[in-house]
Design goal:
The complex is a heterodimer of chains A (318) and B (435). Chain A is built from 14 helices and no strands. Chain A is mainly alpha-helical. Chain A has one domain: Orthogonal Bundle (MetI-like fold), CATH 1.10.3720. In chain A, helix 3 (79-86) crosses helix 14 (286-313). The longest helix of chain A has 34 residues, at 28-61. Chain A is flat and about 75 Å long. Chain A starts with a helix and ends in a 5-residue tail after the last helix. Chain B has 19 helices and 13 strands. Chain B has helices at 2-26, 43-60, 75-88, 102-108, 115-120, 124-127, 132-137, 160-165, 177-188, 205-216, 236-250, 259-267, 281-288, 325-339, 341-350, 359-362, 375-383, 398-413, 419-433; strands at 34-41, 64-72, 94-98, 139-140, 143-144, 147-152, 154-159, 195-198, 271-277, 294-297, 308-309, 311-317, 387-388. In chain B, strands 2-1-3-12-6 form a 5-stranded mixed beta sheet. The longest helix of chain B is centred in the first third of the chain and has 25 residues, at 2-26. Chain B starts with a helix and ends with a helix. The chains are: A mainly alpha (318), B alpha/beta (435). The interface between A and B is medium-sized, with 31 and 39 residues.
Chain lengths: 318, 435
């Protein structure tokens, strides 16, 4: 939203009057433009320093062979991108990340929505359940990962004890190639649901009770009818925001992979940020890691835009 | 306007006091006081050692103040930071570098060659307990870039109670892989929540380090000397070593489970053997306590003259200390002190590891007699004779090849890859990544 401010300011500025009188005294619109820009300036400075300049640097470095700590650097053109096309690990990594995001995003959104409606539907213990569901969000992911590691321990962990109790076979959740990604996704959903729940609660609060009354008058007073005719359409703007935020969050998965699996077994949980981290900071190939980063960021940008367009079309804002 | 002026004046005043304060603080007690900046890793392991060394060193060298930078958690974090600091010109004077990163540092020319300093010290250097074989650990590309500080090697940790339970003799442990696997197999059969054994194998750098132990213990070489590529498919030592992981998984009860979970299993008393680094010793002793009869024995050997790779960290002087002779001299004194008899003794007594200075072993004030009452610590000292260098693949993909090896071991252990296929695929991958 903020990024729009300068351009919208610029577009609202009337075109300068070509009269000679304008030379003598400053026209009032110039003063207001100045004040406008002075409000935006700190943001612009910070944006350039912390976002635009580093991004430009990453793009520039992606065309070089720079290795961390070397004092030599040379331009290699598209070589890093060419290497990326044929490389095995980034491809596995991209596939894993997409599968992970496709598991995490819808389930986090649905679970969060369900929790929000459940909690808001009854005044009893509302604050308690809200805080309880939000707890995973405020706890540190790395610390929680260690707890999960214990819970999911293949022989000593309580989860497997419970499975055995019900006569089910014990599982190696974090070291079985078929289970590791769903397990990490489960942990993420557990963590995200509280976050989406809070956003949906905020969305629900803004729905006027009169609309439900109106719907009831029109004959829609059963829970499902109320949900589909009033709640769901009016949550549209919240939904757009939540889905996009969840997509980006799940594409950015890193902590659980770094603490619990290290991308293994056999790259089954290798994800984009972990690959970038490994190439850049463990193998020191900053040029190559930058190229992966550029492609990844471009993909996320495109995904966000497409998503925004598609969802925007079916949402009623007013 | 008035508000911003007040804030501005306040800030200026604050800046002035801070600068003044800093000046006041940094004014040395003596004009020739040297501040030596030292960076080490893993404060949970080495913090106590370095604090003790600093006190003793400063008492002996009143002209030097040792300043520690916050310790990094892993060797990898440490070298990342060092490379970043090299880029912006902010390296510490002395760094304790993970052994595997010596080629990285050599390639970027970040370490001061210690050979001239050692020559200036004369023959006394070897006489003072830095043996040739230990010096060689810190050598790369014909230059002496570092001296060993805390040297590790892998060995066998075992649960003597479980060994006894399956009919083994814990006082007379097998020294070969077959014997260990046989006992592990019997322990694994004790029940569903028991595991036979564990050797770290994952696609982190250390999986490849333990693999070197398996290979060197069978007399193999990671790469034949002078070769530019590997041909491992027809190499009997490689076949045996790779096949060993399959045997450990199939017969020895090595489960495809993560690192932490494996060690928890051993600490809980439900696993027979762990082949792990000596650096884990104090940690194991503390976590196990009296839960079971915990012991160590030498790393299993496949052949008579099998060897083991070294691990651990080395003290290096960075080029940041090279410009000022006073700083360089202080750095050299500190490196000698921390890798010498006193430093070695502190590391052994507070952490474990392997002595890096043999003089300490002969001094009754230091380590002489120390191991007599500590058989678990003794094992590593007895193994010093079989230790050799840690092999690093040449070229900029060396670290990447290590993870590729670990990835293949993961496949063998979780049974998604046969040893023969693993060898073929490894040979292809390694040769593709070699320069």
């Amino acid at each position: 939203m903020n990024a729009r401010s300068p351009s919208s300011l610029a577009s609202e500025r009337p075109s300068p009057a070509p009269s000679a009188a304008g030379v003598l005294k400053a026209p009032p619109h110039l003063a207001s433009t100045f004040i406008g820009w002075s409000f935006v300036l700190p943001f612009l400075v910070a944006l350039s320093m912390f976002v635009l300049a580093p991004t430009a640097a990453v793009i520039a470095i992606s065309f070089t062979d720079w290795q961390l700590g070397r004092d030599t650097i040379s331009f290699v053109g598209l070589e890093n991108y060419r290497a990326l096309l044929t490389a095995r690990v980034p491809r596995i990594s991209a596939a894993n990340t997409i599968i992970y995001a496709l598991m995490v995003t819808p389930l986090s959104v649905i679970l969060g929505l369900w929790l929000a409606i459940l909690i808001e539907s009854s005044p009893m213990g509302r604050a308690f359940f809200r805080s309880a569901c939000f707890l995973p969000v405020v706890s540190t992911t790395v610390a929680m990962a260690i707890v999960w590691e214990f819970l999911l321990h293949p022989t000593l962990g309580p989860v497997n004890s419970a499975l055995l109790l019900f006569g089910l076979p014990a599982q190696r959740f974090l070291s079985d190639a078929a289970l590791v990604l769903p397990t990490l996704a489960f942990i993420a959903i557990w963590e995200n649901a509280g976050y989406t729940m809070v956003l949906f609660v905020a969305g629900l609060k803004s729905i006027s009770a009169e609309l439900y009354d109106a719907a009831a008058v029109d004959g829609a007073d059963r829970p499902w009818e109320r949900f589909w005719t009033v709640t769901f359409p009016l949550l549209g703007p919240t939904m757009v925001f939540v889905v996009i935020i969840m997509l980006l969050r799940s594409f950015r998965v890193f902590e659980t992979v770094a603490t619990l699996t290290g991308g293994g077994p056999r790259r089954a949980s290798e994800v984009m940020l972990y690959t970038i981290y490994q190439e850049g900071f463990q193998f020191f190939q900053i040029g190559y890691a930058s190229a992966i980063t550029v492609v990844f960021v471009a993909f996320l940008l495109l995904l966000t835009l497409v998503n925004f367009r598609l969802m925007d079309r079916s949402v009623h804002y007013k | 306007m008035r508000i911003s002026l007040t804030v501005g004046a306040g800030l200026a005043a604050l800046a002035a006091t801070t600068t003044f304060g800093l000046v006041a603080f940094s004014t040395p007690a003596k004009a020739d006081q040297v501040e030596l900046v030292v960076q080490y890793t893993q404060s949970q392991i080495f913090g106590g050692v370095f604090d003790a060394l600093k006190d003793e060193f400063e008492a002996q060298n009143p002209d030097v103040t040792v300043i520690f930078r916050g310790a990094h958690n892993t060797y990898s974090d440490n070298v990342q930071a060092l490379l970043r600091e090299a880029t912006v010109g902010d390296m510490p004077h002395v760094n304790y570098l993970g052994l595997s990163y010596l080629p990285t540092i050599a390639d970027r020319g970040l370490a001061v060659d210690l050979a001239p300093l050692m020559e200036a010290a004369g023959e006394t250097f070897e006489e003072n307990g830095w043996t040739e074989s230990l010096q060689s650990v810190g050598r790369f590309g014909g230059r002496q870039l570092a001296l060993p500080f805390a040297i590790s090697m892998s060995l066998t940790y075992y649960n003597a109670d479980l060994v006894r339970q399956v009919g083994g003799d814990p006082d007379n442990m097998p020294s070969d892989w077959d014997g260990i696997i046989e006992l592990a197999s019997a322990i694994d059969a004790l029940g569903p929540d028991y595991a036979g054994m564990y050797i770290p194998y994952s696609a982190n750098w250390y999986g490849a380090w333990y693999f070197q132990g398996a290979l060197f213990s069978h007399g193999g070489e990671m790469m034949q000397p002078g070769a530019t590529e590997v041909s491992i498919t027809g190499d009997p030592a490689w076949q045996t070593a790779i096949g060993l992981y399959d045997r450990m998984a199939e017969e020895g009860g090595l489960k495809a489970v993560g690192d932490q979970a494996q060690r928890q299993q051993f600490i809980a008393g439900r696993m027979g053997f762990v082949i792990d680094s000596i650096s884990r010793l104090n940690n194991f002793e503390q976590s196990i306590g009296e839960r079971f009869d915990f012991r160590t024995s030498p790393h299993p050997m496949g052949v008579e003259d099998g060897r083991l790779p070294t691990g651990g960290n080395l003290a290096m002087i960075t080029t940041a200390a090279a410009d000022d002779p006073a700083v360089l001299d202080a750095a050299w004194r500190w490196v000698k002190f921390s890798t010498g008899p006193v430093g070695t003794t502190q590391v052994i007594k507070l952490v474990g590891y392997t002595p890096v200075n043999t003089l300490a072993l002969e001094d009754p004030d230091l380590l002489k007699g120390y191991f007599d009452t500590r058989p678990n610590h003794r094992t590593a000292v007895d193994q010093i004779g079989v230790v050799r260098d840690w092999f690093q693949f040449p070229g900029e993909n060396g670290l990447r090849i290590d993870t590729i090896i670990g990835e293949h071991l993961e496949g063998i252990v979780d049974d998604s890859l046969t040893p023969d296929d693993a060898l073929v695929s490894l040979e292809e991958e390694i040769n593709r990544l070699l320069p």
